[in-house]
Amino acid sequence: MEKIRHDLRLSETISPFGVGAIVDVRGESLMAPDTSWWDKKYAHEISCERLMSRLGAGVLRQPPAHAGRAAKKTPALRYWRFPAWRFCERCDRLSKLTGKKRGKWSNTCSECEGALVPMRYVALCDKGSHIQDINWFQWAHRGRGAAQDESVRFCRDYRSLRFHKRAKGGEGLAALVVKCYGCGNERSLAELVTKGALQRDGIRCEGRQPWEPKETVEKACPYELLAVQRGATGNYIAERISALDLPEERPASTEVADRIRGHVFFEKLVADNGGPLAEQVAVWIANELGVEPETVMAVSAGEEVEPDEMLLDLKDGEWAAFLKKLEHGRDGTGSDFVVDGRSLDGVAGPEGLIGRISGIGQVRRVREVRALRGFRRHDGEAALIRSDLGPDRRRWPVYPAIELFGEGIFLRFDERKLAEWEARPEVQARAGILAARRAASPWAARLDAPEPRYIALHTLSHLLIRRLAFASGYASAALQERIYANSDRADRTAGIFIYTAAGDAQGTLGGLVRLGDPEKLIALVVAALDDADFCSNDPVCLESDRQGSSQLNLSACHGCALVSETSCESGNRLLDRQLVLGGSDVTGLLDGVLEEVRGSW
Question: The whole model's pTM is what?
Fold first, then answer.
């Protein structure tokens, strides 16, 4: 364990360099241990009731931070050296030993004082999300022929291990060799990456993270170890969740359910329990309250329970809060959630676009809290490792979190027109392509359901982000999106929130929110559609239905619809230009808008 003087941005301590991630600092490879290693005196608590109500027991804490130059007693994060095995770039010696300079540990060879370089391969558990060093001395003395040679089996010359490149071995892994000069045995890294290689050599998963003591392991890990490159992207898959800190509004469906339960006939409905009188009583209640009989029956059956999906639950409350703000027009409150609701009455523009937008919100101030729940390794189906592995992890875990203040633009779309469009058979069929692929993907739980409305609004959000980057003064990587598009829930949602946020308490400078003026925004949306009408990769992009990660994009590529992955809530997946602009076989949500604009020129 060591303290190094190197600055990270506060947001990087959540992702991509959060708990469990490997960080390269000045030629050294380090890993951030869990929050039980933090000095809580310098990690102040962050408040966000909406987020904690979903996470459960625990506390949100901001990683220790400082302003200005770092000094000896500056609050800092602790990092663990990983991998511990390194080789000397001067003498090729491979070991876990570290040299000293002037009585202090340094990343130099203990024999020749050459710089130490971390080994490029580590061992990863395929389902348990564990990671560990490869014992290179043990591995070098295994393999074919080693079992029959006693000089190899009983070799204990730890100082004679070397990692070097064969002069005539080419450029592949076969040319990279770990050799013990004590017994003469050597193995190339080509033997390391074959299927089951570590298992055959008797190297098993230790069932822990590098910073955890061996005594903390409760049971042996049954999963197989894989040798992977130290910098592989699959070595760290962060599980983050964010929430807008706003007054928690009750969704309309919850209020309707309360009115139904309070009706004088509701007890009769429950008592009949789906019997012959239940449907008649449901019709009586529905007629008096102005709702559908199916809604009444669903409430009586208990189908209105809180959803299990944490993010969708958070979005429901945010959607209700946005709708309430839009109803009140100008917002004079001094809270952390200030929205000016704007109407499109009298705004000039294509009717095909204006008729589909039912409201615009200029979000002048918003507070967002981002937290790290934990991480996975290797793939999305591996076990989740919590961000707190200390003794209090079950009773009162600590979640790393940051708070950001910013501004944005909210667009609400007309539910009736959107529902009519997505009911078209060709629209459902095109969205069904992505739905089937999502179901077969290990990332399914991390992605929203690809309903037609979600794909269309998500793609439109990307197009608008690309256009706003030219007009707002913010780079596209500084803009974030939040898509509200779900028709399977009691409260149907259909909206886009594009925002930017910074760690400073004063927030941002207003370059984005001013573009939320309806006159300016409509022109920007039209410009965004015009940009996407022709892609530099057309006709290949337009006619393609297998693009992006896990083929989860249709007509969308870097030339037309993709943005920085930090800006997209789905990692640049579930995109399709044709569901926005239309195609030869499908009608787009905003089909005909560009023709209307061009016809008026």
Answer: 0.80
